[in-house]
Structures are given as C-alpha cells and as structure tokens.
Design goal:
The protein is about 0% helix and about 55% strand. By secondary structure, it is mainly beta. Strands 1, 5, 6, 9, 10 and 11 form a six-stranded mixed β-sheet that branches. Strands 2-8-7 form a three-stranded antiparallel β-sheet, with no helix packed on it.
Length: about 100
C-alpha cells in the first residue's frame, strides 16, 4: 500500500498512467472514478478524475476541498472501467492527513 502525507486545506493532486505488461493503455471512452474514505468506510469526498492523455493512459485526480478532510488516515483508490465493462482498480492509497500550520 502506498502512503501519501497531505496537509489539510492544501490542493490534493495525483496523476498516474495505466500500464499493462509495461505498455501504456489507451483509455479513451473509459469511465474513471475515485473515492476518499475513512477507516469506517465513510465517504469523505468523491473525486472526479480527468483524462490527461487518453492515448497514453494518463489520468489525474484533484481536490481543492481538503479543508474539510479529517485529520488522520484516509484511504482512496481509482477505478477505471473500459467500454466493455471490465473494471480495474489501482492499489489502495493511504493518505495521512496532517494539520496545516499556515491557514
């Protein structure tokens, strides 16, 4: 599991690339969604991923609303669904939300 430290209130931004067997996968026409949840599975925020380069399989998630995220450990993954309905999810990411000192 990948762990990320994030200061509450800062913009959260993450990009990735879908690769299979070392090759980028074209993701044009795919649906992508992502949730941030706490340890009790309560939804903290539904993120709206965007495709940065469909031919290269590059996508990104971003949130400017992290001022409302609770301090502590949160979890997220990104789910990609191809046009045929085949679902792939990233590994679960752990987000350690810390207090922002400069507010």
């Amino acid at each position: 599991m990948v762990a990320i430290t994030h200061k509450r209130g800062d913009t959260f931004a993450l990009s990735s690339q879908l690769m299979i067997d070392g090759d980028p996968v074209a993701i044009g026409g795919w649906s992508i969604r992502s949730h941030v949840r706490d340890a009790s599975d309560r939804l903290i925020e539904a993120l709206t991923p965007t495709v940065a380069s469909s031919g290269s399989g590059i996508f990104a998630v971003k949130s400017s609303g992290t001022a409302n995220w609770p301090l502590g450990v949160l979890f997220m993954d990104i789910q990609l669904t191809d046009a045929g309905g085949f679902v792939r999810s990233t590994e679960t990411l752990t987000i350690n939300v810390t207090k922002d000192i400069t507010q």
